[in-house]
Amino acid sequence: MNKNAHPEQTIKDFLAKYDRVAKLDTNYYRIVPKLQTEIWRIRNKSNSKMCMMRIMRSNGSKDIFRAFGSQIAIQRRITHPNIEEIVDYFETADTFYIVTEYAMRRNLKELISSRSKLSEVEAGEYFVQVCDILQFTAEHNLVLRDLRPENMIIDEKQHLKLINLAYCIETSSYDTKMYITLLIH
Predict the structure, then answer these.
(1) Neighbours of 53 (CB within 10 A)
(2) Tens digits of per-residue pLDDT, 108-157?
(3) Rounded alpha-carbon distances, angstroms, from residue 144 to 31, 68, 183
(4) Is 13 a catalytic residue?
(5) Which residues contact 38 (CB under 8 A, 6 or more apart)?
(6) Which one of the listed residues 13, 146, 155, 175 is annotated catalytic?
């Protein structure tokens, strides 16, 4: 079964839709271990919108590659203003090509580390956004098992964007409620 956004297109067709603008630092974004990764800032040729492309190769690690494929499937199905949107996607036998919205700012950990403290208002705004993410994922029977400041980018409008769903799991409604209850207590 072809899992690509446009099953009829080839990898050549997919890549031809974008201009590569600049190679980005792979250390800046949280990357799945054991996957060889390139990250590019790209421009969509059809609308000139700036995006980001992650090219992730399996390096022979099929289990991690398969697990990452599950994350992509979940992330493509959901839409939330504080979760990074997958704009386009292509998969070959050993490589993922993931086009996401471009939110090049610092991650929340870097922001917190760069200051002695956040103002109460700013901390409160970020806290509310994290709570919105948690509520949304719980309502969709998703459990985020790697929610931390490094996995949240702050965009140009000062909104948080969760960028890593690598350890996210889908559960039944009952399991999600039980898991969240255990985390709270």
Answers:
(1) 23
(2) 998 889 988 899 999 999 999 999 999 999 889 998 888 889 889 898 88
(3) 16, 14, 11
(4) no
(5) 23, 26, 54, 55
(6) 146
DSSP state of 83: B
C-alpha distances (whole Å) from 9 to each of 6, 19, 70, 139 are 6, 17, 22, 34
The helix/strand/coil state of 28 is coil
Distance (Å, whole) CA 33 – CA 39:
14
**Last residue in a domain, options 81, 101, 121:** 101
Boundaries of domain holding 67: 11-101
Domain assignment present for 159: yes
Does the pTM exceed 0.90?
no
Residue-wise pLDDT tens digits, 141-152: 998 888 889 889
Indicate if 40 and 119 belong to the same structural domain.
no
Dihedral sign, Cα of residue 30, residue 68, residue 58, residue 13: negative
